[in-house]
Amino acid sequence: MSSKETRLYNIFFPIWMILLMPTAWMVALPINFIVDSIVILISMRAMKIANKKTLYKKSILKVWIFGFIADIIGALCIFGAMYFFKLDIRGDELFLTIPALLISAIFIFIFNYAISFKSYEKGTRLRMAMHLAIFTAPYTFLIPLNWIYY
For residue 99, is the peptide bond before it cis, meaning its omega torsion is within 30 degrees of 0? Predict the structure, then answer.
């Protein structure tokens, strides 16, 4: 491999899925919807929020869409670091994936706090956004692709 080439072996989610496995989206989309729903409903129950059904319906699509946007931002951080620093590595190294995971979690928090739960009272919206950031961060970034393909 010449020094001008960049190999991207493992930008796990979602960029490699778009390019290599477009049908995987049929699995990823509903699974993320289910996970987001579970986190929202458990959080609402734990915080004893009234009108769970109404608030759930009002926020779930935003939470789901912004979760994917946050995952894409994190994946782009991995891609950007690999490209900018001309790293000829697999892309699943912790010095790339952990910051990308944290960046995605931060964006999940920001999107949900500022947009998805905007109509909630401040304390509730803070806790809901925090729960989603912690429990729905893209931990799949930490899974080496060679565990799947090699």
Answer: no
- 73 vs 1, 40, 113, CA distance in Å? 28, 22, 17
Q: What is the pLDDT of residue 9?
A: 41
Please give the average per-residue pLDDT across 72-87, as a whole number: 83
Structural contact between residues 36 and 67, judged by C-beta atoms closer than 8 angstroms: yes
Residue 47 has pLDDT above 50, yes or no: yes
How many beta carbons lie within 10 A of that of residue 62, not counting itself? 16
Task: Please answer whether residues 52 and 41 qualify as being in contact, where contact means their C-beta atoms are separated by less than 8 angstroms.
Answer: yes
Global pTM exceeds 0.85 = no
What pLDDT, on a 0 to 100 scale, did the predictor assign at position 52? 92
The whole-angstrom separation of Cα 30 and Cα 62 is 14
C-alpha 93/C-alpha 103 separation (Å) is: 16
- Could you give the residue ranges of the DSSP H alpha helices within the chain? 15-20, 25-46, 52-84, 94-111, 122-135, 146-149
Cβ 32 vs Cβ 67: under 8 Å: yes
Q: Is the pLDDT of residue 128 over 60?
A: yes
